[in-house]
Each structure stands twice: as structure tokens, then as C-alpha cells.
Design a protein that fits this description.
Layout lengths: L21 E3 L5 E3 L3 E2 L8 H14 L3 E3 L7 H13 L8 E6 L9 H12 L4 E6 L25 H16 L3 E7 L3 H10 L6 E5 L7 H9 L3 E5 L23 H10 L3 H12 L2 E2 L6 H12 L5 H8 L35
Parallel strand pairs: 3-4, 4-5, 5-6, 6-7, 7-8, 8-9, 9-10
Antiparallel strand pairs: 1-2
The structure holds NADP nicotinamide-adenine-dinucleotide phosphate.
Length: 347
């Protein structure tokens, strides 16, 4: 593979998408090894996110992580529409969207996917994920105490009813691949036991301070590609996702030391580590400079084996996106969402 220079002095130039590695999925499809996140964390305007998508595409990004709940698929779709009109080929781009929690009902899944397709101005999705394994939803911009009065625990029969509809999306050609997000090993075991069409990917929080080694290995062992959200540690995440014990991978002295040696931002080290480990990071940015350096991180010189071993030891099991707003009864802690004892938390 040809490596680009480490520095961003080629800023403003495009990175040839052919120099960006890809992951081969269980179906044989090729997913670009880095995507652009599009969740503005309730702070960044939809227009700013759409502008970032436009710029990212112009410099060589070919993978975009969207979701109906981000509220910006229509604005992003206008950008896709114009890119495709101006010569970008649809099959050169990987587009993911997600089914939001309030659309798990059997009659809601297909219309919700159709709305994402219409908003995004495309006629198929490369990947459609069930965003959370709970039908519990929250209003945009809510705080950590928000609860859905109809919230329920994980109910496998209900999840499978939703999954069957998602499988139908593949049958009718609206979606090429399907997957999960925010799952755990015990939930995934049940799903794999009962699926007709297997998930090709699971989107999950992954960064040097939250490496989820057991789940990562389980997924890889079962041919399911981990997609890593918040790969930089989500420094601008909403207040509802902040607790006093949270740590930040880009503040980690060891990550900073490696970044200093390479002359890059610590975020770039996090992205290089992610790609070399085998997950697909989907960093968010609206800064043109950061968008460029994040893509260059993947196309450029890799970390050394020693760097990779050193970063593996930095894991602090520090989950940042805890999901408190999805809890279903009083006096629970966020750990109840994540089956930390290896069994699905009972109702
Ligand atoms: N499936 C799920 O439940 C789920 C949950 C959370 C997130 N996600 C997805 O994952 C994506 C990314 O996660 P995230 O937005 O939480 O966190 P993130 O990508 O870890 O962090 C984004 C932040 O990092 C900054 N940043 C990016 N590149 C940088 C660089 N090179 N140097 C310095 N700062 C940099 C950005 O600021 P600038 O804009 O200034 O660059 C932005 O504030 C989301 O957009 C969304 O698509 C999915």
C-alpha cells in the first residue's frame, strides 16, 4: 500500500478513496474502513453537518453514518442528491441509516426506512441498523433524567418481530445489509440463534479507554464487523452523556506522547489505532482541517506494533454513552442496560 505523508500540508487536496482501506464483510461487500459520523450532539446545526458531508465527500470520504433520529437526513440528502447528479456514483459510496426506537412496531419499520431513503435521496441503503435494542425513546435535546413512561426492558420476542421486518427490507431490495447497534454478547447470542438474515455489523462505542475486548472478539469470531462510534471519546457529547468519572482518550498522556512523536493531534492516534485494530471508526467533525487529518490518518503511515500494544493496555472500561434515558424502571443504574453480568438484565 502506498502511504501518504503524515502531515496535513496537503490540506485542501483530495485523498484518493482507493488509498483508504476497506473491510470485507461476511457477504463479500466492501465497507470503507472509516466513515463520517453525522450526529451533531444536539449542538451543531443540520446545515453545518450537511456542509461537513459535502466537504468530506469532496476530499475522499466514501462512508457516511446517518440516522433518522439525528434529524438531518433531509439536509444530508440534498447534498447526496447534488453529488450524484454531478457524477459521484452511488455504488462508490457506503451509506448507513438507523431505525429509531419509536419505530420498532411491525407496521412502522418499513415506512421508517422508506422515509430515510426519501430524505437521503437514495433508492437503497448499504446498511440499516436497529439503533438500540429497546423501543424506549427520548425527545431530542433531553437531559439525563428524561424517561419514557412506556419504557420496557429488552424483550427478545419483540426484538425479533422488529428484526423480521428489517430482514424484509433486504428481501425487497431497499437495504443491502442489516445490523445492530448498542447490543451486548447475551443479546447477540439470542439474535444469532434466531435470525434468517445475519447482521453484518454491530455499531458500538469503541475508543482506547473503552475497548470492549470480549464483545469485539465475539463479533469478529462470528463474522460481524464492529463499527466504532465516538472513536475520539466524543468530546462534545450532550450533557446527558457526561458523568464525573468519565475519562478522555485524547487527554491520555500516552496517547498524547505518541501524537507528539508523530506530529499529529491525539484524535488522529485514536483513529489510526481503531482502523489497525479492525473496527471501522466513524468520527464526527465539522472542521475542514480535522476532516482532512482524520481521513489522512487512515490512508497514511500506520502505528507501530509497539504503539498498538501500548494502547491496548490503556483500556479503562470507561463507557461514555451510557444511555440512562433508556432505563425502564426506578432505582436502576445505567449498567442495567448493558448486561454487565453476562446475562440479560431481567425485567
Ligand atoms: N449508534 C449509536 O448509538 C451512536 C452513538 C453515538 C454516536 N454515533 C455515531 O458516531 C459518530 C461519532 O461519535 P461522536 O460524535 O459521539 O464522537 P467523536 O467522533 O468521538 O467526537 C467528535 C468530536 O471530536 C472532534 N474532532 C474530530 N476530529 C478531530 C481532530 N482530528 N482533532 C480534534 N478534534 C476532533 C469534533 O470536533 P470538530 O467538529 O471541531 O472537529 C467533535 O467535537 C456520531 O456522529 C454518530 O454518527 C452512533
Amino acid at each position: 500500500m502506498q502511504f501518504l505523508t503524515q502531515s496535513a500540508d496537503r490540506f485542501e487536496k483530495m485523498i484518493n478513496p482507493k488509498l483508504v482501506p476497506y473491510r470485507t464483510l461476511s457477504t463479500g461487500a466492501r465497507m470503507p474502513a472509516i466513515g463520517l459520523g453525522t450526529f451533531g450532539s444536539d449542538q451543531v446545526s443540520h446545515k453545518a453537518v450537511a456542509d461537513a458531508v459535502q466537504y468530506a465527500a469532496s476530499i475522499g470520504y466514501r462512508h457516511f453514518d446517518c440516522a433518522s433520529v439525528y434529524g438531518n437526513e433531509d439536509q444530508i440528502g440534498r447534498v447526496f442528491g447534488s453529488l450524484f447528479q454531478n457524477g459521484l456514483r452511488r455504488d462508490d459510496v457506503w451509506i448507513t441509516s438507523k431505525l429509531w426506537n419509536d419505530k420498532h412496531g411491525e407496521n412502522d419499520v418499513i415506512p421508517s426506512c422508506e422515509k430515510s431513503l426519501a430524505d437521503l435521496r437514495i433508492d437503497y441503503l448499504d446498511l440499516y441498523l436497529i439503533h438500540w435494542p429497546f423501543p424506549n425513546h427520548h425527545p431530542p435535546g433531553c437531559d439525563v433524567s428524561a424517561r419514557n413512561p412506556h419504557a420496557v426492558p429488552y424483550i427478545h420476542e419483540n426484538y425479533m418481530r422488529t428484526w423480521r421486518r428489517v430482514e424484509e427490507l433486504v428481501d425487497c431490495g431497499l437495504v443491502r445489509h442489516i445490523g445492530t447497534s448498542n447490543m451486548t454478547i447475551p443479546k447477540m447470542k439470542l439474535l444469532l440463534r434466531d435470525v434468517r438474515i445475519k447482521p453484518v455489523a454491530n455499531e458500538m462505542e469503541l475508543h482506547p479507554h473503552f475497548q470492549q475486548p470480549d464483545f469485539f472478539d465475539y463479533l469478529m469470531g462470528n463474522g460481524i464487523q464492529p463499527i466504532g462510534f465516538s472513536p475520539i471519546g466524543s468530546p462534545a457529547r450532550p450533557n446527558r452523556d457526561r458523568t464525573p468519572g468519565d475519562t478522555s482518550p485524547i487527554e491520555d498522556p500516552t496517547i498524547r506522547e505518541i501524537a507528539k512523536r508523530l506530529g499529529v493531534h491525539p484524535a488522529v492516534v485514536c483513529i489510526k489505532w481503531a482502523v489497525q485494530r479492525g473496527q471501522v471508526p466513524i468520527p464526527f467533525s465539522t472542521s475542514q482541517y480535522n476532516l482532512f487529518t482524520n481521513l489522512l490518518a487512515v490512508a497514511g503511515q500506520p502505528l507501530t506494533t509497539l504503539d498498538m500494544e501500548t494502547i491496548e493496555k490503556l483500556d479503562r472500561n470507561c463507557r461514555l454513552i451510557k444511555g440512562q434515558v433508556f432505563l425502564w424502571k426506578d432505582n436502576q443504574t445505567w449498567e442495567d442496560l448493558w448486561d454487565v453480568n453476562g446475562v440479560i438484565t431481567p425485567a
